[in-house]
Amino acid sequence: MSNKRDPLGRNIKVPEGSEIVKQVPYSWLWSSLPWLIVLLALYAFGVIEEITGSVVILVVVAPRYLETKRTFYAISKNSLVYQRGGLFGSQRFLFPFSNMRDVKVRNGILGRPLGYQSVDVYLDKGAVATLNYISPNSNAFDLLDKGISEFSSKDTIEESDEDEYQYVCSKCDAEVEENQKFCPECGNEIEKDVCSKCDAEVEENQKFCPECGNDLKNS
């Protein structure tokens, strides 16, 4: 499997035995801090009223709080499943170790005093997947570094390893087959194939995206 979102638009099931790494509890506050400082300054100088400032703070903080609660990183023996939280749900991305080239840790300016760090995973074609706001005590870096080392001599995951990945319904988490159009448990319609670069709908037999020209075979 390539380092992209599941082309069928469905969540990827987290492999059993995965190490689950979550963001530190107050990461939503750290990411909102610059906005909060600006808003407090505007309020102090009378540029905005208290009610307006409260509404803006809610708009700024709420999405970041939900993103923190819904974001996690699952590291298995073969891959990293990256769940990115958002205001209206979450998306999962699969990054096999065979598509990773390196991993590095960044503490940032405030990382050490505030107790968090970022782990950058360097992928094929120059892409980078960043595990943000994770605890320095996490073993995410060690697990990823070990996985990359073990798979560094392999060009692709063996066919037997592909069986590890199962698809689940994005609504009820029931297992679904690759060719099913509707969930057998709740009837949820399974989304169509999308381009990994621009998210435009593509047909199964198309080699290139009709919108952006992305090579669908190698993306």
Please describe the topology of this protein.
Blueprint: E1 4-5, E2 11-12, E3 19-22, H1 27-44, H2 50-70, E4 72-75, E5 79-86, E6 89-96, E7 100-106, H3 108-114, E8 117-123, E9 128-134, H4 140-151, H5 159-162, E10 167-168, E11 175-176
Helix pairs in contact: 1-2
Could you write a compact summary of the structure shown?
With about 220 residues, the chain is of the alpha+beta class. The protein has helices at about 25-45, 50-70, 110-115, 140-150, 160; strands at about 5, 10, 20, 70-75, 80-85, 90-95, 100-105, 115-125, 130-135, 165-170, 175.
Structure write-up:
There is one protein chain. The protein has 219 residues and is of the alpha+beta class. It folds into two domains: 4-23 and 71-170, Pleckstrin-homology domain (PH domain)/Phosphotyrosine-binding domain (PTB) (PH-domain like); 27-66. 28% of the residues lie in helices and 24% in strands. It contains five helices and eleven strands; from the N terminus they run βββααββββαββααββ. It has helices spanning 27-44, 50-70, 108-114, 140-151, 159-162, and strands at residues 4-5, 11-12, 19-22, 72-75, 79-86, 89-96, 100-106, 117-123, 128-134, 167-168, 175-176. The protein has a five-stranded antiparallel sheet. A three-stranded antiparallel sheet has the order 2-10-11, with no helix packed on it. Strand 10 (167-168) and strand 11 (175-176) form a beta hairpin. Helix 1 packs antiparallel against helix 2. The longest helix is centred in the first third of the chain and has 21 residues, at 50-70. It is globular and about 60 Å long. The relative contact order is 0.17.
